Every structure is written in C-alpha cells, then in structure tokens.
C-alpha cells in the first residue's frame, strides 16, 4: 500500500479526496492544513509521496534536500501556478515537479466574463450609490458586448475558453499567442501583442508567470490601450506591474480593471483580515479605487475544479511514485 501526504488541504478538497479513495482502496492518504516549508518538511518522513497547494515560496534548499533524503521522488502541486517552486533545486534533488495545468478552464473563463460584465454594466458604481440610497442613472449607460473587441494575451486552455464564451456573445475576439491552434480559427483572429493593446475594448491575460512574462503589463503597455478599455487579470499577479496599473486607473488611461490576483497575495487571499492588519500596499490602494474590482483568487473555485485538482494530482503523484512519467512534469 502506498502512503501519501497532502499539505495545506482545503475543506472542499477533503470531500473530493474521500470520493477518490472509494476507487483507490490501496492508497493511504493523510493530510494537514500547513504549508510545505523548512519547519514542516519533516512531516513527510515515512511517506511515499507528497502534494501541496500553496502560494508561499518553497525556496529553502533544506526542503528539497530532506524530501530527497526521505526517499520521495516528487512534489505534486494541486494548482496550475508553479512559481512557488524552485525547479533547479528540485532537479538537483531528483524531485519531479508536476502541476495541474487545467483543472477547469471553464471556471476561470466564467470569472473573466463575470468581472467583465460587472465593470461593463457599471454595477460596481450602481452598488456603491445604492448604499447611500442613490438610484440615479447618470454615468451608468453601458456598451453592449457584441459591439466590442475582446483581446486575449495567451490563448491556451483557459484563454481559448474565454474566447469561446465571448465569441458566443457576439464579440469580436483577437488573441496574441506564439502557438496558433487551428481549432480556434473560426473563433478568433491571431494578432500581435501591439494590436491587442491598441484595438481591444477588453484586454484579458492568461499567461503563466515566467521570466518572459514577469511585469509584462507595465506603464508602456497601459498607455497603448484605449482610454475606454477594461483590463482583466485572472492569471498570476506578477504578470502585472501593479504601480503602473494603479497609475493607469488613477489617471484614467484605462477605464477599469477586474483582478482575481495581485502581487503579494500570498498569506492574504483565503484568510480573514477583518479584525487584523495585512501588509500589501498595492492591494490597499486598489480597494479604494472606484474603477477597480478585486476577488481573492477564486476564479478556479468551483465544484468541478476542486474535483479535477484532486483527481489529476493524485494520478500524477502515483504515476511517479510507481516509476512512471507524468505528462504534467515541469522539470
């Protein structure tokens, strides 16, 4: 019987794990609610494999060294983003790292639609007024989505789902991506980044956080967008240089922004700070802006996504433990 440990488990994941175990009685699964770090890595001793879901950086060499000493062959992430992992240290310690590249592309694409329509129809303004019993119409006239162009940076699994949703609503869809997928030819037109920035009424990004995409959206990019443009980020916080975004919103270089992620969100999102302080000046500023909305990285958070996160990560973990190769290996 294989024995695996899941770090930082969410309550909803426990339900999915119980369902998974019904068809895998030969696997023993233990879990905890702590992140993988130098203080908790010893918990993995005696297990065949581990998995984690966290925003905290795992950058201390001792974590990787100890996992190797314990005989563990992998680190399985139950999320898409893998910028928390030092892939070089993992490779040096013979640890294969996997992620779940698309636990539910539909879940994130529906969040993009929700934020876009909330901003496009000025619902954030109407809601704010109504709290003071102001039900006037001034400034609430909206544009209709079928008259607009949606520009996608990164038309992979999630970006292509975003394209399908907006195309179904009648919008013109353009996308910048180095990979041109023939199955999307009837849905979108491939263009370069500059064209997306200049022509799109809605700009939404779905790129991974890499060295090449770090702070991709900087001051120069926001200045290229239409003053009427809406910007959506449901990918990774580091893709956006946040001071530049804040300036663009304050100076009305773009109309509005919808964010499901932000730089420095680790240890903040998914926690309750209603009665305690948190440290992220960018987030504090954005929360005060009348033309920005932010959600705590919940774009993925649907029943289907949680089930897929568990099922795919457990399959990858067992595959590597048993000497196989996962299609989701990152190193």
Task: Write up this protein.
33% of the residues lie in helices and 15% in strands. It has eleven helices and twelve strands. The strands form two sheets. It has a seven-stranded parallel sheet with strand order 8-7-6-9-10-11-12, sandwiched between helices. The protein has a five-stranded parallel sheet with strand order 2-1-3-4-5. Strand 4, helix 3 and strand 5 form a beta-alpha-beta unit. Helix 1 crosses helix 11 and helix 4 packs across helix 6. It is globular and about 65 Å long. The model has no long low-confidence stretch (mean pLDDT 95).
- The portion of residues assigned to helices is 25-40%
Q: Note poorly predicted spans.
A: none
Give the helices and strands as they follow along the chain.
Answer: EHEEHEHEHHEHEEHEHEHEHEH
> In this structure, how is the largest beta sheet organized?
7 strands, parallel
Average pLDDT: 95
Keywords: NAD, Oxidoreductase
Pfam family, one: 2-Hacid_dh
Domain D-isomer specific 2-hydroxyacid dehydrogenase NAD-binding: 116-299
InterPro entries: D-isomer_2_OHA_DH_cat_dom, D-isomer_DH_NAD-bd, D-LDH-like, NAD(P)-bd_dom_sf
């Amino acid at each position: 019987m294989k024995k695996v440990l899941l770090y930082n488990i969410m309550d909803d994941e426990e339900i999915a794990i119980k369902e998974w175990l019904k068809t895998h009685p030969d696997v023993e699964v233990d879990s905890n609610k702590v992140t993988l770090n130098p203080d908790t890595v010893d918990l993995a001793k005696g297990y065949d494999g581990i998995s984690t879901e966290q925003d905290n950086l795992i950058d201390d060499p001792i974590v990787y060294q100890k996992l190797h000493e314990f005989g563990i062959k992998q680190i399985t992430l139950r999320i898409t983003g893998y910028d928390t992992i030092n892939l070089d240290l993992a490779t040096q310690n013979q640890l294969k790292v996997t992620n779940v590249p698309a636990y539910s592309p539909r879940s994130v694409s529906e969040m993009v639609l929700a934020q876009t329509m909330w901003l496009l129809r000025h619902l954030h303004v109407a809601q704010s007024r109504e709290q003071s019993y102001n039900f006037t119409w001034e400034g609430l006239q909206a544009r209709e989505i079928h008259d607009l162009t949606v520009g996608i940076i990164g038309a992979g699994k999630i970006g292509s789902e975003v394209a399908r949703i907006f195309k179904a609503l009648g919008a013109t869809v353009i996308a910048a991506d180095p990979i041109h997928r023939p199955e999307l030819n009837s849905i979108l037109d491939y263009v370069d980044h500059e064209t997306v920035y200049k022509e799109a009424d809605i700009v939404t990004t779905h790129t991974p956080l890499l060295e090449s995409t770090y702070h991709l959206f900087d001051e120069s990019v926001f200045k290229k967008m239409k003053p009427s443009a809406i910007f959506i980020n449901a990918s990774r916080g580091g893709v956006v240089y946040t001071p530049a975004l804040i300036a663009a919103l304050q100076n009305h270089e773009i109309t509005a922004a919808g964010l499901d992620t932000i730089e420095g969100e680790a240890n903040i999102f998914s926690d309750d700070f209603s009665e305690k302080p948190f440290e992220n000046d960018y987030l504090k500023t954005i929360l005060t802006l009348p033309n920005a909305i932010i959600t705590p990285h919940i774009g993925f958070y649907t029943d289907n996504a949680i089930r897929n996160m568990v099922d795919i990560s457990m399959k990858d973990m067992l595959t590597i433990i048993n000497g196989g190769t996962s299609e989701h290996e990152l190193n």
